[in-house]
Amino acid sequence: MEVINPTPQQAEYTTAKRTDNQLLVITHVSQLLTYVTGFGGLIVPLILWLTQRDKVVGMDEHGKAIVNFQLTLILLTIISIPAILLLGLGILMLIFIGIVAFVLPIVNAVRASNNESPSLFMTIRFIS
């Protein structure tokens, strides 16, 4: 039986956000796809954020943090390449970026599973 004119309680239920910590964890861990596919660490979280930000509690905050973090990593990587050629110190910067890009998604996945805000270490806010 289909409800043609929903009651206010039914309408409120259908528009309410759901809590899904597992999806938040998956979104953070999907950043590690960068090591497998290149830009997968940006594309997959971006798609999850854009499709779920109005449906899942906390997805908007975590999604923005992930996209900002990934864009920051891309920018720092682009900056470090000329630094390798000019000063030779860019290799240290690339190593640091690689470590942070591996550790921070795991830390934020744990924070998401505990209903905490993501860590914004070393992140430029492109999207606020």
UniProtKB/TrEMBL annotation:
Q: Does the keyword Transmembrane apply?
A: yes
Q: Which residues form a coiled coil?
A: none
How this chain sits in the membrane, per its record, is: Multi-pass membrane protein
The record's subcellular location field reads: Membrane
Keyword tags: Membrane, Transmembrane, Transmembrane helix
Membrane spanning residue stretches: 32-50, 71-104
Q: What is its main location?
A: membrane
Q: What is this protein called?
A: DUF4870 domain-containing protein
- Per the UniProt record, the source organism is Marixanthomonas ophiurae
Highest classification ranks of the organism: Bacteria, Pseudomonadati, Bacteroidota, Flavobacteriia, Flavobacteriales
